[in-house]
Specification:
The chain has 7 helices and 9 strands, in the order H-H-E-H-E-H-E-E-H-E-H-E-H-E-E-E. By secondary structure, the chain is an alpha/beta fold. It has one domain: 3-Layer(aba) Sandwich (Rossmann fold). The strands form 2 sheets. The protein has a 7-stranded parallel β-sheet, sandwiched between helices. The protein has a two-stranded antiparallel sheet with strand order 8-9. The protein is globular, with a radius of gyration of 18 Å.
């Protein structure tokens, strides 16, 4: 799918940014659009690493923000990943939307976040924000969950599950975008999220399997 097909489907500011870097959409991105990504539908995207999942999230978030439908929140499991996403989004969209990074250890409501459009945060920080009843939370329209397979993690899973449960009750018809390279029970998770499932095995570099032994690799 050519990026040009999105010209009249996304805000012109967003299209203007993307056309400088992208010509063709990747398979998972095309499938997500056909499943209703740009129409506010919730999706669970399960595709290999580097297959274009982040752009799927960006399209949902920036469309919501630029069309005035509501804020977007991007949930990641680690502070390092939060910083990485913040730098990337700030570089690409910093002149178009107000982007914030919230991951401090301080247990507070962070009222200043009310002024921002796209907020990157960790599960633990979002848990703190919810417990402080931050009033701006009700303005969230798009919820993106990176590495959503960590719902099955014994340490981070329970917190993330509670967060999503609370957000689904707190927010009015949110668009939830779950991203993961591997999910064992994708259909079950999609049903729980109330999302359509997008699965694709395309990857930018073909994956070869083999055995390394005594200085040689035998592929199979």
């Amino acid at each position: 799918m050519d990026l040009k097909t999105l010209k009249n489907k996304v805000p012109k500011e967003l299209y203007g940014i993307l056309e400088k870097e992208i010509i063709q959409l990747r398979p998972a991105q095309e499938k997500s659009i056909k499943k209703g990504l740009l129409d506010g539908k919730s999706l669970l995207v399960c595709t290999p690493t580097a297959s274009g999942k982040t752009l799927i999230a960006e399209l949902a978030a920036l469309k919501s923000v630029l069309e005035g439908k509501g804020k977007a929140i991007y949930i990641v499991p680690l502070k390092a990943l939060a910083s990485e996403k913040y730098k990337s989004f700030k570089r690409r969209y910093g002149k178009t939307a107000k982007i914030a990074l919230s991951m401090g250890d301080t247990d507070s409501a962070d009222p200043y976040l009310a002024e921002y459009d796209l907020i990157i945060t960790t599960s633990e920080k979002l848990d703190s924000l919810i417990r402080h009843h931050s009033p701006w939370l009700s303005g969230i329209k798009t919820v993106i969950v990176d590495e959503i397979h960590l719902l099955n993690d014994t340490e981070r899973g329970p917190t993330l599950e509670i967060l999503l449960t609370v957000l689904k009750k707190l927010l009015k018809n949110p668009q939830i975008i779950g991203l993961s390279a591997t999910i064992g029970n994708a259909e079950e998770l999609a049903e729980w999220l109330g999302a359509d499932l997008v699965v694709d095995d395309w990857r930018p570099v073909k994956l070869h399997k083999g055995i390394y032994h005594e200085g040689k690799i035998e592929f199979y």
